[in-house]
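Deliverable D5.2: sample structural annotation.
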Amino acid sequence: MEKMLIRGVTKDSNVARLSVLRLEDKPGIAFNLFSKLAAKKINVDIILQSSGRRGTKDITFTVAEDNAELARDCIMECFPEIEEDNVIVDKSIAKVSIVGAGMETHPGTASRMFDALYSAGINIEMISTSEIKISVLVDQEMADRAVDGRPRRFRRPRRVLPGRQRVLSVIEVRCSAAILARQPNPTPLRSGTPGQNGGPSQLTPKKAL
């Protein structure tokens, strides 16, 4: 089994979510929309499509906040028949991601992340996963709560720099603890050593005395 390594948690506040409601449920709808967005050089990140119901479906996706209005214009150009109220633009969100290696071969990583967000009182609005990253959309005002290490009972020093102390986020601590618990003879974590050329430190097991 591939070794699991949580490298960190990131936050992206330059995100807007667009939802297109009650689209006709037929082939070619998604192609029509996203080909138009590509032609306008609009990069799309997370995409979610609902299952069809009563001949219609909903498509939700995210873009950079700066491209939100241009993306909305593309939607209206693609589907001139839909009502404006069926195109919703939300700029009050942020994307929080946990980044690491070996997630695909370690069951339970996502559930530990969601548990950490739940414990911090953070509602998840969308989810996207890959082999090296799990991303969620949350309310922009709540994003720092996951990234800055709150609540206090989950704070742990990772690396001390002159005049500053970095702390593990809620998510990092929860996921790292879960990984160690699944290993034979788990050992506590200690602060990692700086990487080469001043790179980020890594969590390393404390050697038994």
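Annotation notes: DSSP finds five helices and twelve strands in the chain. The chain has a mean pLDDT of 76.
The annotation will be released with the project's public dataset once the embargo ends.
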